[in-house]
Design a protein that fits this description.
Layout lengths: L5 E2 L18 H17 L3 E3 L9 E5 L5 E10 L5 E8 L2 E11 L1 E7 L5 E7 H14 L10 H13 L7 E3 L2 E3 L5 H15 L1
Antiparallel strand pairs: 1-9, 2-3, 3-4, 4-7, 5-6, 7-8, 9-10
Keywords: Hydrolase, Iron, Metal-binding, Protein biosynthesis
Organism: Dietzia timorensis
Catalytic activity: N-terminal N-formyl-L-methionyl-[peptide] + H2O = N-terminal L-methionyl-[peptide] + formate
Length: about 200
């Protein structure tokens, strides 16, 4: 599979509600496989399709506690009223994060990459990951969940970040343009290194 460039804020694809996936086919399965490669390479715990430039309702996750999977057209409900503030970061907003209040537990539904129905109860980190990634699918960035000074500080840090204004990143390499031969060459070199 391939490691795809991760889109950086404020790319429009990150701020737009993603489209439902009408059919799970080979293209969706390849997207999921590429997203796992990309997330693992970036050492993330979740990645939504818009973060790799695809406006579809798909995300992958791995909480490093035995919960790893992909969800297509996911939804969740909140069964309780308990919530908690905890730190969140984002692969599309490198090295910047904040304390976000989220429900402690959720019930998640969707499809896996084979088209089979998935239902599970999530709490702790897994619940937070799912909520964060579904926010991405709704065009909501974590900074929008910050309040007051925390939001102002995060936005100031973003505007002064070295990567701000660049469209994409793979590892430590930030690209000024997408679709260039340099991006494709970097994708191939990273994929080759993984095959060794």
């Amino acid at each position: 599979m391939a490691i795809r460039p991760i889109r950086l804020y404020p790319d429009a694809v990150l701020r737009t509600r993603a489209d439902e996936v009408p059919e799970i086919d080979a293209g969706v399965r390849k997207l999921v496989a590429d997203m796992w490669d990309t997330m693992d390479h970036a050492e993330g715990v979740g990645l939504a399709a818009p973060q790799v430039g695809v406006s579809r309702r798909v995300f992958v996750y791995d909480d490093n506690e035995g919960h790893r999977g992909a969800l297509v057209n996911p939804r969740y409900t909140v069964p309780g009223s308990d919530s908690e503030f905890d730190y969140e970061g984002c692969l599309s907003v490198p090295e910047i994060g904040g304390e976000i209040d989220r429900p402690l537990e959720i019930d998640v539904t969707g499809l896996d990459e084979s088209g089979d129905e998935v239902r599970f109860h999530a709490d702790g980190l897994l619940a937070r990951i799912c909520q964060h990634e579904i926010d991405h699918l709704d065009g909501i960035m974590f900074m929008q969940r910050l309040t007051g000074d925390a939001r102002k500080e995060a936005m100031a840090a973003i505007r002064s970040a070295e990567w701000f204004g660049m469209p994409a990143i793979i590892g430590d390499l930030v690209f000024e343009e997408l679709g260039t031969a340099e991006v494709e060459a970097r994708q191939l070199s990273v994929a080759d290194a993984q095959d060794r």
